[in-house]
Amino acid sequence: MNKFWDNYPLIQKELEDVQRIMKKNVKSNEKYLEKPLLDLINSDGKMLRPAFLLIASKFGEYDKNKSENLAAVIEMLHMATLIHDDIIDESKLRRGQTTIQFKYGKDYAVYMGDYLFSKCFLMLSDDYSMENMKKISKVIAQICMGEIRQYYFRFRQDVSVKRYLKIIAGKTAALFVMSFYIGASEAKCDERIIKTLGRIGYNIGMAFQIIDDILDYTAEEETLGKSIKNDLKQGFFTLPIIYTLLEKDKNLEELMAEKEISDDDVIEIINIIKFSNGLKRAKKLALRYTERAFTLINELPDCESKKIIYEITERLLKRKY
C-alpha cells in the first residue's frame, strides 16, 4: 500500500479492503491472465479515486461493504483506462513498473483493459441504482471521448486552451467527479452536498492534470515513476506547449511541425518552454482550479471527512513543480 495514506489509518485499512475485493474479482484459473492484473493492483498507486469515493460516502449513510465494493469498481475502471492509455502513449513505465503493453504486447493489453471493464459492470449489476449505473457508463464514454479528441489533435498546433481543457475534463476530471458524486449519492447524501462534492472532484481533477503536465517539463523521470516527455514524441500538445505556441515562437513552431520529434528536439523544446511564459501561465490556471476546489470544500458541513478532503487536496495540488 502506498504511504500516501499513512496519516489516515482508517482510510488505509479501507483501501486495503478495496484491494482485496479487486484481487478477488480478477482471480482466475488462467494465471497468465491473473498475474498482470495482480501486478497492477499491487503497484504503488495512491488509489485517490476510491479513497475520495469512500470519504464522500461518509457525508451520508455509510455502508462499508457497499462503498468498498463501489470503490473497487472505480479503481478497476481507472486501471482499465491506464492500460489503454499506455497503449496509445507507447509507455514503458507505469507506477514505476513495466507496463502491460510493453511487457506483453499491445494486443494483449487491449484485451486486458476490456476484461477489466467487463468485470466492473459485472460487479455493478447487483446492488446499485440504475441512475448511478447510467452515470458511470456516461463517464466511461467521456473518458473515451477525451482520448479520441486528444488523438485527433495530435501534432496540430491549432489546439486551443479551450480544446485542451475539454480533453482533460474527459480524460481525468470525469473520474474524479464520479468518485465524489457516486460515493455521496449511494450514501443518500443531501442533493446540495452531492453536487458540491462533484464540483470539488472536477476542480481537483482539472488542477491535478494541469500540474502533471507541468511536471513533465520540470521533474526527473524517477520522481514521477513513468516515462516523461512522451507526450511530445506522440504529438500530444499539453497546456505549457499550447501557451508557449500562443507567443508565436518561430523555433518552437518549426520543431512542433515535425511528424517525428527526436530526443534532441525534445531537449530544445523543453528549454524553449522553460524560458517562455508557458509554464507560468499553466501554473496560474492550475492555481485557479485549486482555489475553486478549496472554496467549495469550505462550503461542506464540518466533519472529519471535510478535514481530510482539505488536507489531501493541499498535498495533491501544492506539489513542487
List the helices and strands and how they pair.
Blueprint (H helix, E strand, L loop, with lengths): L8 H18 L4 H11 L6 H10 L6 H26 L3 E2 L2 E2 L1 H5 L1 H19 L5 H23 L8 H26 L4 H25 L5 H4 L5 H5 L4 H7 L4 H7 L6 H12 L3 H20 L6 H14 L4
Antiparallel strand pairs: 1-2
Strand content: under 5%
Tally of separate domains = 1
Biggest sheet layout: 2 strands, antiparallel
Please give the number of β-strands. 2
| Helix/sheet category | mainly alpha
- What is the fourth-level CATH superfamily? Farnesyl Diphosphate Synthase
**In sequence order, what are the helices and strands, one letter per element?**
HHHHEEHHHHHHHHHHHH
Q: Distance between the terminal alpha carbons, to the nearest Å?
A: 25 Å
Poorly predicted spans? 222-228
**Rg from Cα:** 20 Å
- Biggest β-sheet: strands ordered side by side in the sheet: 1-2
Number of helices: 16
Mean pLDDT: 88
Looking at the structure, what is the overall shape? globular
CATH C-level label: Mainly Alpha
- The CATH architecture classification is Orthogonal Bundle
- Predict the CATH topology: Farnesyl Diphosphate Synthase
Question: What percent of residues adopt helix (DSSP H or I)?
Answer: over 70%
